[in-house]
Specification:
Elements lengths: L9 E5 L5 H11 L7 H9 L5 E6 L2 E15 L3 E13 L8 H15 L5 E5 L17 E8 L16 E3 L1 H16 L10 H7 L14 E5 L2 E8 L2 E2 L2 E2 L1 E10 L2 H12 L4 E9 L4 H4 L7 E6 L1 E5 L2 H4 L9 E8 L8 E8 L2 E6 L6 E4 H8 L5 H6 L3 E3 L4 H9 L12
Parallel strand pairs: 4-5, 12-13, 16-19
Antiparallel strand pairs: 1-2, 2-3, 3-4, 5-15, 6-13, 6-14, 7-8, 8-9, 9-12, 10-11, 16-17, 17-18, 19-20
The protein binds acetyl coenzyme *A.
Keywords: Acyltransferase, Transferase
Organism: Lentzea tibetensis
Pfam family, one: SCP2_2
């Protein structure tokens, strides 16, 4: 984990409200987008100025990155504070001088020194960027699912007889906010949402739509679905694509009913949904092979303070091992820690005992949400076992009871 030293001409500070127009231009340049005046207001609502940093070359803002104050639900149904890292961008022409490295170090050291969130999460634009900063890959994944129109369910799948109503965004929003807030507390990887995150997640200006329709909102008494339509009128009949943004339901029956509503939509050809890797739909349709699916990495997780982070979730079995951890960027994590779990709860204490397992902080980040098996990281030679059986036992303890999934990109 080698972190580049910043060019000495650079300086970094937190942003103020006045910096947002310049920030908008840096982000547009970084993401190869056209700058839009209206993005400044959305950024103001979405980003938190006092947790956002600008990196300056003299007076010029050349790079940025922000932390969103969020809760994420950890294994054990535990909503827990996390630093959601976003809006990382460096102007072309100022890259590979250590701008992003300076930002990463400032964020992580700040969280540690101020005793803030014990771990950070992000969505990576490219898979090659964040491993060097100790973020664990694939800590959650998503399933990119294509389901054929009218795919039948097994007879045991109950959908109930509640009517699903298609309503306006204005009518849907307060209902969705309430349902989402109840459901997210029970789902590993889900975040709480504030006003800015709803605006960002369900942004629905013309330029957000990528040629598709505006969002449609389907309300069930115990859930909702949001989707767009891509029109596709074929000579042999309509084959519209339903692009589902999310299906959120408080009961399995409501979840099935909302899926059924989308699958049976007249004029549709297929339903596309970026969903959780353990979406039960594959066991609900009679022919799972009809569902074409691909997996992609979603959240990357960075443990900031190992002794504060690991006890924040629950574990599936009891273990007692010494972990030898390497962390160049956050050296306070390096060294040996006794990791003990009992009845689901963990303690992490400094020790001089000899280690049972050696691993780096990014490997711990990968397994933290409970979706990645430590045994797989050992087979990838990322984790070394010194005591036979330790990796198997730790792997089982760290697994969650469902796959972590983050339904929103931030
Ligand atoms: C959470 C999010 O917001 S994800 C969005 C990230 N932003 C983007 O993708 C926008 C486009 N890209 C950028 O703005 C920049 O290239 C960034 C932010 C990814 C990297 O910024 P830089 O200031 O160039 O990074 P920095 O100079 O600190 O590089 C650190 C190391 O990472 C490597 N690195 C940086 N970016 C990349 C990349 N895209 N792919 C592979 N390696 C990379 C560098 O080569 C360097 O390694 P080295 O020290 O061994 O030479």
């Amino acid at each position: 984990m080698n972190v580049r030293m910043a060019d000495s001409a650079l300086s970094i500070r937190t942003l103020t409200d006045d910096d947002f127009p310049a920030l908008g231009r840096v982000l547009a340049a970084a993401f190869q987008a056209d700058f839009r005046e209206d993005s400044v207001e959305r950024d103001r609502k979405f980003l938190e100025a006092d947790r956002s940093h600008g990196i300056f070359d003299g007076d010029e803002l050349v790079g940025c990155g922000g932390i969103l104050t969020r809760e994420i639900t950890l294994p054990g149904r535990l909503p827990t504070p996390t630093a959601a890292v976003t809006a990382v961008g460096v102007k072309p022409g100022h890259r590979r001088r250590g701008v992003a490295s300076l930002l990463m170090k400032t964020q992580l050291h700040g969280l540690h020194e101020e005793n803030r969130e014990a771990f950070a999460i992000l969505w990576a634009s490219e898979g090659s960027i964040y491993g060097r900063f100790g973020y664990g890959a694939l800590s959650s994944e998503m399933l990119m699912l294509d389901l054929p129109h009218r795919a039948p369910f097994h007879p045991w799948v109950r959908t109930g007889d509640a009517r699903i109503r298609e309503v306006t965004r204005e009518e849907a929003m307060p209902v969705m906010e309430e349902i989402h807030d109840r459901v997210r507390r029970t789902r590993t990887g889900w975040l709480n949402r504030v006003e800015g995150s709803w605006l960002f997640h369900l942004g629905d200006e013309e330029h957000d739509r990528d040629g598709l329709t505006a969002y449609r909102y389907a309300l069930h008494p115990q859930g909702y679905a949001v989707y767009r339509v891509k029109h596709d009128w074929q000579p042999r009949g309509p084959q519209n694509e339903l692009h589902v943004r999310e299906i959120v339901a408080e009961t399995d029956e409501a979840y099935a009913a909302l899926y059924r509503h989308l699958l049976d939509m007249d004029l549709a050809g297929e339903v596309k949904f970026f969903t959780s890797s353990d979406d039960p739909i594959l066991h609900m349709i009679t022919n799972p092979r009809q569902a074409s699916r691909a997996r992609a990495d979603a959240l990357w997780t960075r443990i900031v303070d190992i002794d504060r982070a690991l006890p924040q979730r629950r574990y599936l079995s009891d273990v007692d091992y010494v972990l030898d951890v390497t962390d160049d960027l956050c050296p306070w994590n390096s060294g040996s820690w006794r990791f003990t779990t009992k009845a689901g709860e963990a303690t992490v204490l400094r020790t001089t005992d000899s280690p049972d397992v050696s691993l780096d902080i990014a490997a711990l980040g990968s397994v933290f949400l409970g979706g990645v098996r430590l045994t797989v990281l050992a087979r990838a030679q990322r984790v070394r076992e010194h005591t036979p059986g330790a990796v198997d036992a730790l792997s089982a303890a760290f697994l969650g009871d469902r796959d972590p999934h983050c339904p929103e990109v931030f």
